[in-house]
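Hi C.,

You asked whether I'd gotten around to modeling the 232-residue construct. I have! Everything is below, sequence then structure, no commentary in between.
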Amino acid sequence: MLALPALIDLISVPVSMRPATYFSKKLYSNEALRLRIVILFLRSATSKEIKDVNIGRISTVYLHLVMQIELIPATQDNFPVIAELAEIIWHKHYVPIIGKKQVDYMLGKMYSKESLTEQQKVKHHRFFMIQHVAALIPIGFISISKENEHDYWIHKFYVLDIYQGKGVGAQVFEGIKALMPNVNSIRLTVNRQNFKSINFYFKLGFIIEQVADFDIDNGYLMNDFVMIWRKK
């Protein structure tokens, strides 16, 4: 049996919390987010459901709710959140692949306010927050651009690691395709040592189109595959 007061004592996430605090690693630990989902469930449950709640029931509710996401168009007001999500995700995922120095360099180059503004306003990249419906928090982001009426690029596609492997990425991809009614192809780049992401893109129907190395200055290269998805 779990008592509601004990759960509320363990975690409280005000809606007005500032992004820098809101996206702390502590908040995004499995247990913290799990407890937030539990609280959301208990707030809407009947007194009998609260009395009868148990770990198995909580697990079922958590696993169901964790699958529900929506795409929300991002504005410049979202850039600090995008940058903080990128910092969390990149340090977790990319340091073992390319090292901390290159990660820090690329984060500064690609996720500063000036860089994100240029991507949106000059390069016409469309940014979307990946929103967790039940917890009301962004859990990732994606950006796309249109090469022409039928061919698109995905430039950024990131989801917090605790949501990976749960179908969230596939939902996002289907949502993005729905925004491209005349799409024939979608391209993206991925590091050649990023096996987890490469396999994910294979599952979505992407194939490797070419090998490409991109000079990003300061002595660093991006050693990538260009992958392509084609409409069947």
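If it helps when you're writing up: Residues 4-65 form one domain.

Thanks,
B.
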